[in-house]
Amino acid sequence: MTLLELQRRMSNDVRRPLTSSFEMQQRTEDGQAMADLASTYIKPNDRLTSFDRLEIYNRQYWFRVIAAVSEDFPALAAVLGSKRFDALVLAYLKENPSTSFTLRNLGARLPMWLADHPEFVPRMKHALALDVAQLEWAYVESFDRLKMAALTLEDFAGLDGDSRLSLQPHLQLLRLSYPVDELVLAVRMQTPESDIMSNAVSEMVVRTRPKLPGMRRSRVFLAVHRFDNSVYYRRIDHEAYLLLSALQHGRTLGESLEAAFANSRLKPEMQAEKIQHYFAHAAELGWFCHRPTDMIGVQ
Amino acid sequence: MPANRFNGFTDYGVGIGLRVPHYNHIFAEKPVVDWFEIISENYMVDGGRPLQVLDQILDQYRVVQHGVSMYFGSAQPLDREHLKRLKTLTRRTKTPWLSDHLCWGSVDGTYTHDLLPLPYTFEAARITAQRIREVQDYLEIPIAVENVSSYAEFHESQMTEWEFLNEVVHAADCGILLDVNNIYVSSQNHRFDPMVYVDAVPAERVAQIHIAGHSKFEKYTLDTHDHPVLDPVWKMYARAIERVGNTATLLEWDDNIPTFDEVHNEALKANRYLHANSSSPLPLESTAHEARA
Predict the structure, then answer these.
(1) Where do the structural domains in chain B lie, given as residue ranges?
(2) Contact criterion met (CB below 8 Å) for B144 and B174
(3) ipTM of the prediction
(4) pLDDT tens readout for residues A97-115
(5) Fold type of domain B5-292
């Protein structure tokens, strides 16, 4: 067996899902005995069979990846409860194994995957769970994405309707059906920070369920951003959300303003006042920046 | 010997791993620590608090990078994006050497995020050495490979682990991060004499040493890094220092992390062996050859 053949075989076996009691499966999907498979390449010793030795790695893999995703979605875990959340993460990871050297990106596809898999969440909670997942991933993105040099007053002076403005890469805009910022903040306050460790083995983490605030459906628009290296959730109004989203999608300033106020019943003078307020606020927080290709990012 | 070409001719003493639960203590108390080891992957990001913390640490302390995902032994080409990000970080930290593991962990673009053991074959040694050389050439800093703890052995193996380590580091012309705890854990799982391993290590290539705690179970021993260093590991450390000379030493404590002072005091126990060691270590492979000539 070549090195590549061995690695392909072991990678398949290590990533094969565990049983519900977190043990290695006795048989593969096509009915082969795992004990036979393991013995083709792993030596037994006087205490452990080939199966037992492979199982150590099989369990390690799942404990590690489940822990990594769980760490990024503590509020989703709290909303669903451990049992449902673990089932959801297992199913997600089966379909979305890691394709990056860093565990940081492992949960990136979870919000979209959850939208396509409502069966993992009680029907009444699907929209809430989706909102929570989106906000928790926005936090991850905002936490360590690039920060560009913000536009200065002189930069603003030269703008007109045809200008295109770039927004900070760490700024995430969300349209939500529940005020989940309150819920996520409540959970984060009760969750310790951690980071990737070295080559120590991973254990299955037992989570305690934090207390959650009650949630009633209400439309919320959020800007998730970083300021002084802390992540903040800022509620914005519908027009500001439309304006910033249009700019983020590369539309001109004129087109973005039109998109923001297309269905507005506000009088023109009120609109002008709002626009002035949005820009003052965004400029104060450094949300507008030079395009990433214009200059090197700053820390 | 502690300063050699595999650790950038530095003379570092006892360090500890930089961990999130200790950040506040470090910034508030500014404790005297000879050096910190960072996990590279925690700082291979575009911005935000991780890099702010790192810069604050770099202002006051010496830092060495340790990686967990280069997977020198994976059989396929290196991930260029990973290398690029790693090089950016090495320029920021000015790490005098960089370590990662003698293992594999990815295949066909899928990652296990585990340090999987290699079959000790000549083919694996050749492929691994080639990849280490490529990383070393690209990063332009010395590389030290760390022996991993393992729980499985392969039918395919053609040599012992220590013979494999020798084969790889000579072919790659790289350094070694000698993890004496990992040797001990593997010796318990595979029934070999850990001192034979320590004695077989090419002493002149050791850039750094890791010490850590482990956990014994009924049928196997796990590398848990969750409590103090145990006596058998200190004995191996003493033997390693006797052979290699005073060498940069790092305590790994990654789970159930106690206070900063507790971790640091445990690490400083290494000084008993470092200070006890005479200025002249046992003869090196190269000097022994010269003496014979």
Answers:
(1) 5-292
(2) yes
(3) 0.92
(4) 999 999 999 999 999 999 9
(5) TIM Barrel (3.20.20)
